[in-house]
Design goal:
Length: 288
């Protein structure tokens, strides 16, 4: 309604200054999600990105990132969607790092034409990690016999209820190395001419925004409003692009919640404990 009223006003009474759309990409990166526990993935952010890049008259899109990482697949899909829209709509992408843009979060940040961080932000962690839990002795202690039947000798590879096998771990590490090489190639393609010649950059280490600037992982230090005002004028309007809301005001997620609610919550309570622990561990690694 406000937008319609502005259009009806004569030009001399309309607010002057550019409108820059802002997209917030905050949280751990993983497939799935629900209304009650949203996840950062392509399905959940694609509509926001489409809205932002479709803003008429905006020379740039500002993206705020605060993520410790997660799924490399979803990270790369979000990165690619940002780059595709930037080229299609001919808009510049300015990425602003808040607390952390590490691992998959930094992979998404690479989509920016420029990366701006706070001096105390955490950036980097260019590596690949897989985590899990082992319950080898648990079933025996509680008197439960587990029965698994497979066709294919590797279908129970890395089963948490069986002793770890060296060949299974070696296979997993070979996959990690391949994904790491893809990550490294993305960093070099987007920022190779800016990177400092230090072997630690691709080791999985992470740094403050200030040190990240010295290493070439970050272009400059600053905050979103101040930086955009310097570039586009003090009368600039920042417009946060948010998800559409459903009947009861709940934001529509990338994946819908269907079926019996009680059953769903019971399943989430039982099956989500390890996932929550993994998520907390991701944030905890950076002191958050």
């Amino acid at each position: 309604m406000a937008g319609l009223l502005r259009k009806l006003l004569p030009k001399r009474f309309r607010k002057q200054g550019l409108t820059i759309p802002v997209v917030r990409l905050h949280g751990t990166i993983m497939a799935g999600g629900s209304r009650f526990r949203p996840a950062l993935n392509l399905a959940s952010v694609a509509p926001l990105l489409e809205k932002a890049f479709s803003t008429k008259g905006a020379p740039a899109v500002a993206i705020s990132i605060n993520s410790p990482g997660g799924s490399p697949v979803q990270s790369r899909l979000i990165y690619q969607r940002i780059r595709d829209l930037a080229e299609e709509k001919k808009k510049r992408v300015l990425v602003f790092v808040e607390d952390v843009a590490a691992s998959g979060g930094y992979m998404i940040a690479l989509a920016g034409d420029e990366i701006i961080a706070d001096p105390t932000s955490i950036v980097g962690s260019i590596g690949v990690v897989s985590g899990g839990f082992g319950f080898v002795e648990l079933l025996q202690k509680i008197g439960v016999e587990r029965r698994v039947y497979t066709a294919g000798s590797n279908k129970v590879m890395l089963d948490p209820f069986q002793p770890e096998k060296e060949r299974d771990v070696e296979f997993l590490k070979s996959l990690q190395l391949e994904i790491h090489e893809i990550f490294i190639s993305m960093v070099k393609a987007r920022r190779g001419h800016l990177l400092a010649g230090t072997p630690d950059i691709f080791s999985g280490l992470f740094w403050t925004g200030r040190r990240g600037q010295e290493l070439g992982l970050v272009d400059s230090l600053g905050d979103m409003r101040g930086e955009l005002q310097k570039r586009f004028g003090e009368k600039i309007e920042l417009k946060l692009v948010s998800a559409s809301r459903g009947l009861f005001g709940l934001r529509q997620p990338g994946a819908s919640l269907t079926g019996d609610l009680a059953g769903h919550f019971a399943q989430q309570a039982l099956g989500g404990l390890a996932e929550v622990a993994e998520e907390k561990a991701l944030w905890g690694r950076y002191g958050l």
